[in-house]
Design goal:
Elements lengths: L1 H20 L3 E7 L3 E9 L5 E7 L6 E7 L4 E7 L5 E7 L3 E7 L8 E7 L5 E6 L12 E3 L5 E7 L2 E7 L6 E8 L12 E2 L4 E5 L3 E6 L5 E6 L9 E2 L5 E5 L2 E5 L6 E3 L18 E2 L4 E6 L3 E6 L5 E6 L9 E2 L5 E4 L4 E5 L6 E6 L8 E2 L4 E5 L3 E6 L28 E3 L1 E5 L2 E7 L6 E6 L5 E7 L5 E7 L2 H6 L2 E6 L1
Antiparallel strand pairs: 1-32, 2-3, 3-4, 4-5, 6-7, 7-8, 8-9, 10-11, 11-12, 12-13, 14-15, 15-16, 16-17, 18-19, 19-20, 20-21, 22-23, 23-24, 24-25, 26-27, 27-28, 28-29, 30-31, 31-32, 33-39, 34-35, 35-38, 36-37, 36-39
């Protein structure tokens, strides 16, 4: 009887515990007395978490912390001198970049600081833009070669500047002027693996050559775009324009779909989060008023929506298994089925103003104003897509993940085809084909030139009969 009772206990309560383990469970919570946290958490490859906290007693002095996991302890902390902007950005497991006011200068003059990731000491700092006074947030992104891109806004003027990551020397600056009644309000920058960079402001969406700062194209929007664009497969650019999600060709700026009616419609929501990209080319957008919506990235048609009673202030994050994690103003972190939007689990933390970060071990990190939470999830890191979370990756670099681009072909004649291949500006692009969707055979390596390169391929008997798919990837 005792064995039967134990078996019954396990079946009832053990199953319940396993069910909980399959959802969201607390690993640890970190609190600094009389402090509050702000911005998204950055995560280095060794699991060190980087975040900013401010003292309630001294509002003007935020501090950047590096928190190691085992044993859990502060490795170092560095005062970021006055008016904290943005979030920590990690490069090459060697440097943490932050933007802040520079002591001794006008308090609104923002400097870019490069800190040693090991001990938090300053490597160098420099003025982040061409203006003496800044009136809105500034942001950092990182290029393939480590180039540091910074945004700056001053009244109706805005600028993007590029800096050498070793010396801090300015490479180039691109300035924008909008109408006097507008603020420029440049968003964070999205960096493609071909070297182009994309951002938005109160006028529209811009594409620049990341090496030279030259404008490639500009797309005028109907309203101000307040969040970073996201980069999808094939270099597609997703952004929100008023109450719509739009998709543009990254090379030309041409519309991939025309937002109209139900296509890209955000349900009357005119304030939304940065788009993120999940499995099967699904694009997710959080709406500040009432929930999250999922769209087909190829057509702009809505797949599903998950409604909430409270606002969604921060972008969702997509896990490796397709689960969508989104934080809400009701103090809950939700895990949703990425395919249909049904709720898998939830975890109450309190007020959550940041986007989740997911380590390769499946531990999810999020800031809840007075606490940082580490939460077990069912995912094994981020989804293998170009833009699975805000700022693209756990390092907050804004650099699109290099996933293979699957390429379409155009038949020229019986024995040849043409393929348009997007090229990186920094690294070789490898053109490959497969006959079984498992093993890929290298066909050609293309030099880094940027843009799109047309390849004419002469088919032999093997490639003519057996090739099922072509792709390109950056090495």
């Amino acid at each position: 009887m005792k064995n039967i009772a134990l078996l019954t206990f396990f079946l009832v309560f053990g199953y319940s515990l396993i069910g909980q383990a399959q959802g969201l469970m607390l690993k640890w919570k970190y609190n600094l007395p009389n402090h509050y946290f702000q911005g998204d958490v950055g995560l280095s490859s060794d699991g060190t978490a980087f975040f900013v906290a401010r003292s309630n007693a001294n509002f003007s002095i935020p501090v950047l912390y590096a928190l190691q996991q085992t044993p859990r302890a502060v490795k170092w902390k560095a005062p970021v001198l006055s008016e904290w902007r943005g979030y920590p950005v990690i490069w090459n497991n060697s440097t943490v970049y932050v933007l802040d006011a520079y002591e001794g200068a006008n308090w609104t003059e923002i400097h870019l600081f490069a800190l040693n990731i090991t001990n938090g000491t300053t490597k160098w700092h420099t003025k982040s833009g061409p203006f003496d006074n800044y009136n809105s947030d500034s942001y950092i992104s990182i290029g393939l070669d480590g180039t540091v891109f910074c945004t700056a806004n001053s009244g109706n003027m805005g600028a993007v500047s590029a800096f050498n990551p070793i010396t801090g020397k300015k490479k180039w600056v691109f300035e924008i002027e909008v109408g006097l009644a507008q603020g420029c309000d440049i968003t964070p920058i999205a960096v493609a693996d071909n070297g182009n960079i994309y951002f938005a402001n109160s006028n529209g969406i811009y594409a620049l050559n990341g090496s030279t700062g030259e404008k490639i194209w500009e797309y005028f929007t109907d309203s101000s775009v307040s969040e970073s664009p996201a980069i999808g497969d094939g270099g597609k650019i997703y952004a929100t324009d008023g109450g719509y999600l739009i998709a543009l060709d990254g090379a030309t700026g041409a519309e991939i779909w025309k937002p109209f009616g139900s296509i890209g419609f955000l349900g009357g929501c005119h304030q939304s989060t940065e788009p993120v990209i999940g499995l099967n080319d699904t694009v997710y957008v959080g709406c500040i008023y009432d929930g999250i919506r999922a769209f087909d990235g190829s057509t702009g048609l809505k797949k599903w929506e998950f409604r909430t009673d409270q606002p969604i202030y921060a972008s969702p994050t997509v896990g490796s298994d397709g689960t969508v994690y989104v934080v809400c103003g009701d103090g809950k972190l939700y895990a949703l089925n990425g395919a249909n939007g049904t709720k898998k689990s939830e975890f109450r933390t309190g007020n959550i103003p940041s986007s989740p970060t997911i380590g390769s071990d499946g531990v999810l990190y999020t800031v809840a104003y007075t606490d940082i939470y580490a939460i077990y999830s069912n995912s094994s890191g981020l989804a293998n897509t170009t833009w699975p979370k805000a700022h693209s990756n756990n390092q907050n670099s804004g650099l699109a993940n290099s996933v293979p681009y699957f390429l379409s072909t155009r038949r020229l004649n019986l024995n040849s085809i043409e393929i348009n291949v997007p090229l990186s500006t920094q690294k070789e692009t490898v053109l490959e084909y497969t006959s079984n969707l498992t093993n890929w055979i290298e066909y050609q390596r293309l030099s880094p030139k940027g843009g799109v390169f047309s390849v004419n391929i002469q088919l032999n008997q093997d490639t003519k009969e057996n090739v099922r798919l072509w792709r390109s990837r950056v090495e």
